[in-house]
Amino acid sequence: xxxxxxxxxxxxxxxxxxxxxxxxxxxxxxxxxxxxxxxxxxxxxxxxxxxxxxxxxxxxxxxxxxxxxxxxxxxxxxxxxxxxxxxxxxxxxxxxxxxxxxxxxxxxxxxxxxxxxxxxxxxxxxxxxxxxxxxxxxxxxxxxxxxxxxxxxxxxxxxxxxxxxxxxxxxxxxxxxxxxxxxxxxxxxxxxxxxxxxxxxxxxxxxxxxxxxxxxxxxxxxxxxxxxxxxxxxxxxxxxxxxxxxxxxxxxxxxxxxxxxxxxxxxxxxxxxxxxxxxx
Length: 280
Known about the structure:
With 280 residues, the protein is mainly α.
C-alpha cells in the first residue's frame, strides 16, 4: 500500500511539473527555469549525502550517474522545446515513451519481448502517428504538432537514457545518484545555454517560482525510488508511469483541445506506456 501511494505521488509530481514548467517558461528565460530547480535538487541531495556521511560509491556508479544526467538534460531541453511548439496534451504522452528505451536495451542484451510489451510498443508507436497529425482549421494555428512530436521523441530518447542509466547509478544510494546525475545535467544545460547565448538572468524574487518544476521532479524521483524499495516493481512501475494523465488532464482543464484522431492517439500512447512498463 505504501509503495503504491509513493508511486502515485511520483506520477503526480512528474505530471504537475510537466505542466507547470512549460507554462512558467512562456514569460521567463527557459534555461533559467530549467536550471533553477536542478540547482536546488543538487544542493539538497549534497546536504543529505554530507549530513549522513554516505560512503563514496565506486566508479560504475559515477559513470551511470553521469550518463543519466546527460540523458535527463537532453530530455528536459527537448521537452520544453516541444511544449513551445505544440500542445502539452500531445507532447507529454510522446515524451513519456522514454519508458521504451530500457525495454529496447533489455532486448539488445537478450531479454525476451512478451506479448503484453509488444502490444504496448504497437499502441505507443501508433499513438504517436495519430497524435502528431497536423490539424486543419483554427486549431492548427496554435502550434505545429509534427515539429512538437519530433522534439517530444527527442525528449523521450533523453528520458529513456536517464531511466536506463539511473538504475546502476542508484546502487550507491538514491541521494548519491541524484547529486551526481545533477552535476552532469547542469554541465550540459549550462553548456547549451552558453552555446545558444540564452538569457539566464532572473530577478531574485522570481527564483522561488522558477524552482518549482525542478523541485517537483526531485520529489517525484525520491518518491519513485523509495517506492521501488517498498513494493513490487511490476506495480510501482505502472503507477509511476501514469504521470501523462495528470499533465493531459491539467492541459484540458486549462483549455487545450485536440481533434478526435489526436485524442485517440494520445490515449493509445498512454496505454502503450503503461503496458510497456509492466514487468512480465
